[in-house]
Each structure stands twice: as C-alpha cells, then as structure tokens.
Amino acid sequence: MAPSVSVLPGQPPATPTDHIAALKAATNTRAKLTSGQYDQLSETVTPYEQYPKQISGPTVWVRDDYQTHPERWVHWWTSEQLAEIEQAARNFQATGASITDISKDNFVLASQELRDFLAAARHDLLEGKGFVLFKGFPVRDWGVELSAIAYTGLGTYFGRAISQNGKGHILGHVKDLGNDPTQIDKVRIYSTNARQFFHADESDLVGLLCMHRAKEGGESDIVSTHHIWNVLQRERPDVARTLTQLWYFDRKGEVSEGKLPWHTSQIFQYYRNRLITKWDPYFVKSLTRFSDKGDIPALSAEQREAAEVLEQTCLREALHMVLEVGDIQIVSNTHVLHSRTAYIDHPAPTPKRQLMRLWLSTPPSEGGIDLPYEDSNELLRGGVQVNDQPHTSPLDAE
Fold it and tell me: Following CA atoms 394, 367, 115, 110 in sequence, which dihedral angle do they give, to the nearest 10 degrees?
C-alpha cells in the first residue's frame, strides 16, 4: 500500500488547474546538446613531474573510514521526505509532460529543509567523499512510472540529466539484455551480467536506483581515486606516471559526424589544482580493431601492466556494499571509481536485476569543477551524445 500523500505547508494541492498549467510552463529549457566524449584539450595535459606527490583533504578516504560507520554515508528517507518527494512526482505526472522535461522548476520540493539537505549532499558529492547511499525509496508501492519520475526529479537537485548512449537515454537501465560481454567493441557492459571493472562514467555524477536485485552477485564496490593516487605514488610511481600519459578511448560506434571513432585523454588529469580521473578499461581494451590495422598505437606493456595494477589496487582498497531494492547510490565520477561483480538473475517469472541510472552534469556555473574538455562550461557537458539525437526516457531497458 502506497503511503498517503498530504499537502505539506507551502505546497499547492496536487492537481489544481492553475498549478498544473504552471508546471507545464516550467519545462526545462533545452540546453545545447554536445557530442560528449571530447579529446582532452592539449594545453591541459600536465606532465607527471607537475603532479602532487600526495593528495589530502575530504576527497581522500579509506575503507575503514566508512565500513563500520554507515551513519557517515547511509541515509534512510523519512516518511515526511518521501511524502514530499511523492507529492512532487504526482504533481509532475499530472501534467502529462515527458520525464525528459523534468527540472527543479517543475519538480518542486516544498520544504526548505529537504532542499537544504539535498544541497548539502550534493556539495559532499562534488567536494567531499564523493558518494552517498539513500535507502527506502518505496519503488514497489509507487510502481515503475512514478518511481522513475520521483527518481529523475530528485536527480535534478544534484545535476542535469545527460544522454548515456547513442539512443539519447537520459533515464538508463542497467539490466542484462542477453548481450555478449566478450564483444566489447560493440556491447556496453551495463547491458550484460558480466563483471564491471573499476571505472568512471562519462558524467560528473552517476545515480543508480535499485528496482530489482539479482539472485546472486551484482554487488558494488567504490574507491577514492585520490587515495588510490597516493597509494600508487608510494608503491608504484612508475604506474602513476603511465596513467598520466594520453590514452585512447573507444566510442564503440556511438560517433557524431566529424568525430573519430576514438578520443584521447589522460587517466589521471591534474587540472586547476584538482586531480580528476577518467577511466574505463572496457573502452581501452576494445580498441584492438583499430590498433591491429595500425590506425592507433597498440597498448604498450607498460600500459597493460598499469591497467592491471590500477584494478588490483582498487580491489584491495575498495568499500563494498550491496544495493537493496529501493536504494539509491550516487557517486562522483571525477574522484571515485566504482565497479560491479558479475551476477546471476532469478529464473522467470521473477524480474531480472535492474537499476535505473542517471548521468548528471554539474557545470562550473552550477557549482561543479572545471574539466579539461571543450564542453566544460556547457550545461549538458559529457555523456554520450551522438549528433542531435533527441533525449528519451524509456521505462525499461531497450
């Protein structure tokens, strides 16, 4: 049974004609679409010798800081917060507008207290430890559509949703579609049940809402890349150096007109006194179809070793968690890497493991950090945006 929804102080009733008309008028201004996956600007490629030997501050953390202290990173939604989120979702749903049009202007959270709480969580994601776990989103009571609206609307208080693939999905779905995970030049691993190695997505923040759990596996690990940098500088400075070289990354066929099928970037970037991480081994190892033809250099022995050392160091240092139904994990992609274990789904008719995913942009004009790419100041920076593919928000994987 879904919780009852009452009108909170300062909150207009759910469906008066004038309020619905106002919400319809408050659709998100269409920001400029970008191609995403830009080459790192050449003038921002910092030599290894200019990198800090050690990073300090709130972005640096170790597993023991949080493993036995869930109160530092886990938040259970209160009934009042859920009622307020549900009211905002039902108000938006009543407009009949597309989920792609959700913004803070038309997904209105009534209380300043909740807005301030979310703003503090956002600041901690951008400038602090870089992760949070919200628990207790009542997805089974709300159903798929209302959960998607509530989740996407909540996401607007953290950033702007951007395209996650060539289809323009701003609401993505991490679900096994039966794709072959060995075909890494064609297949995005989120559409398989294979292990995902430590990586960062093509966005400032990534959110995952657990709709259904797997029978076995599908568990999550995260790690502070600023801590990993410190470890590598101490244990394997040769690897740290290699990770500051320019590497090639695959676009996996999701290529805008006038762009090459790959792009280049350092894995550890040092830009405007900030260490930024860009990494996904599946987008590096898939490039053999180009290196075999001599179009780009093959991975060197030093690069292959660096990738393996990075993965093993992350495994050793990671914080482990299991996402339950109704959990929302939000992670910074600039200073946290995340991974997923392989999994096995329940047999039908039990639903497959499914996570709704948001990639969120936080440009400097809205409190985010500067990035070493030409789209750094765009409202919808990053992502996988192919040409002017319109944004869509499917309610299931496709």
Answer: -70
